[in-house]
Amino acid sequence: DGASGYLRIPSSSASGGAGLNSVLNPDHITIEVWVKETELRYVWWGIATKPYSDTIWTDPYVQWKIGASNLYNSSRNPLHFAVAINRTQYRIDSKTTIGDVLNKWTFIAGTFDGSIMKLYVNSVLETTYSVSGEIDKYDTDAVVGRSGIKDPNEYFPRLHSHGSHILKSVK
After folding, report:
1. Contact 159, 73 (CB under 8 A)
2. What DSSP line would sit under 7-46, residue for residue?
3. pLDDT tens digits in sequence order for the chain, 171 residues long
4. What share of the chain is helix, strand, coil (3-state, %, to 5)?
5. How far is CA 131 from its chain centroid?
C-alpha cells in the first residue's frame, strides 16, 4: 500500500512461498502498474522490479523493471522500462517525467514481445526500441514498491499503488 512496506513475490518455493518461477521468468512480458507518486525523491527507484541478484547490485542489475531514475536529479527524471537479454540491460525512457505525474494516478505499462520493447504512460505509447531475444532468467524474487536488493526496510512511503499486473506472454 506504500504506507508500511512493499510486496515481495517469491520466484521459487525455496524463497518461502508457493513459487511463481514460470510467471516471473517469461521469455516475453507485459508489466502494468497504477501508481501515484506524491514526493520527489532523487534515487533509482523501482515500481515493479525483478533484480539480477538478491545479494549484489551489479550489471545487468535487473531481469525486468518499471521505475524511474535519477538521471537529472530533479523532477525531469523519466519513467522507464528495462529488460535483460544476454546479460545486457536494455532500458527505454519515457517522455513523461516524474514531475509530470506527481500527485496524479498514472498508468504505466512496459511490454516486450521478443523483438520490440514498448513503454506506455496513461495508455499513450511513448517510446519503443528494437532488440531481439528472450529475457534472461534469474532465480530472484520480484518486488513491488522497492528497488530490489537494498535494505529490506527501504520502500517508498509516498508511492501508492492501486495494482500491479505481471503478464506472461504465451506463444
Report:
1. no
2. EEE-SSGGGTSS--HHHHS-SSEEEEEEEEE-S---S-EE
3. 445 567 777 776 555 555 566 667 778 899 988 887 777 665 567 788 888 876 766 777 888 899 876 665 566 778 899 999 999 999 999 999 888 888 888 999 999 999 999 999 999 999 999 999 999 988 888 887 765 455 444 444 444 444 444 444 433
4. 5, 45, 50
5. 18
Q: Are 35 and 160 in contact (CB under 8 A)?
A: yes
**What is the number of alpha carbons within 13 Å of residue 2 lying toward its C-beta?**
17
At 163, phi and psi to the nearest 5?
A: 170, 150
Other C-beta atoms closer than 10 Å to the C-beta of 75 total: 13
| Alpha-helical regions (H) of 39-115 | 98-101
**Other beta carbons less than 10 A from residue 6's beta carbon:** 20
Q: What are phi and psi of 101, to 5 degrees?
A: -110, 5
CA dist 105 and 5 (Å) reads 19
CA-closest candidate to residue 144, choices 64, 80, 60, 29: 64
CA trace torsion 13, 19, 25, 29 (10° rounding): -170
- How many residues belong to the chain? 171
Cα 160 to its chain centre, rounded Å, is: 15
Please give the model's pTM, rounded to 2 decimal places.
0.80
- Angle subtended at Cα 11 by Cα 121 and Cα 6, rounded to the nearest 5 degrees: 55
